[in-house]
Amino acid sequence: MAIQFVTGNEGKVREARSYLEDVASVEQVSYDYTEIQSDDLAEIAAYGAREAYAELGGDGVLVGDAGLFVEALEGFPGPYSAYVEETIGIEGVWQLASERENRRAYFRTVLAFADEGGVETFDGSVGGTLVAPRGEGGFGYDPIFAYNGQTLAEMSTEEKNAISHRGRALATFADWYADRA
Ligand code: ITT
Domain containing 42: what range? Predict the structure, then answer.
C-alpha cells in the first residue's frame, strides 16, 4: 500500500516513513489543496485531505496541518502560524509573548488521512516554554520553543522527532493504519 503525503517538506516525508515502514510506503506529492479558514486544525486538514483524495485517488492521502499555540495570546498564532511567520516572523511572536508573564505554548499537528472509507484525523501535541531565539537547527518556530531547557532548534533531528507533535500524531496514525490493514 502506498500513502501519498501531501507536503512540500521532504523532512516530514522521511519522518513519516520511519513510523510507517512496517505497514505502508510513503510517497511525497505536491497538491495545492484548499486551506479553509477555521480555528480548528482538524477541520482544515480533513477538508484538504478529502479534496486531495478526490483529485489524486490511490490507496490514501495524508495531509497535515500544524501550528504554535501561545497560551497568553489565547492560542495565537495557531492555524495562522505560517502567515504570521511570513509577516511578523518568529521574533515578532517572541516580542508579543515576552511581554506576558505566562510563557507557556504548545505545538499541535493534526494529520488527516482520506481514502475510499472516508477521512480520519490524528492529533499530536507537545508543550513547552517560549524563549528568546536560540539554535540553528530545525525550522519555523523551533528557535523560540524550549522543551526541558533546550530549544527545538538546539536539538538534533532525532532528539526533536522523539518528542515532536508531528511524531506523536504519526505514531497514532501508524497504530490505527496497522490495525486496519
Ligand atoms: P506543508 O508543505 O507540509 O503544508 P507548512 O510548513 O506549510 O508545510 P505546517 O502546517 O506544517 O505547514 O506548518 C504551519 C506553520 O507552523 C509554519 O509556519 C511552520 O513553520 C510552523 N511549524 C510547523 N511545525 C513546526 C515545528 O515542528 N517546529 C517549528 N515550527 C513548526
Answer: 2-180
Confidence of residue 22 (pLDDT cuts 50, 70, 90): confident
What average pLDDT does the segment 113-137 reach?
98
Catalytic residue among 22, 32, 59, 65: 65
Separation between Cα atoms, residue 120 and residue 113, nearest integer Å: 5
> Is 103 exposed, middle or buried, given 0-12, 13-18 or 19+ CB atoms closer than 10 A?
middle
Q: Residue 109 in contact with residue 66, Cβ under 8 Å? A: yes
pLDDT at 56 over 90: yes
- Mutation to probe ligand 1, out of 5, 6, 9, 158 (largest number of atoms < 8 A from CB): 9
Active site includes 65? Answer: yes
Model's pTM, two decimal places? 0.95
Whose Cα sits closest to atom 3 in ligand 1?
7
CATH of the domain at 20: 3.90.950.10
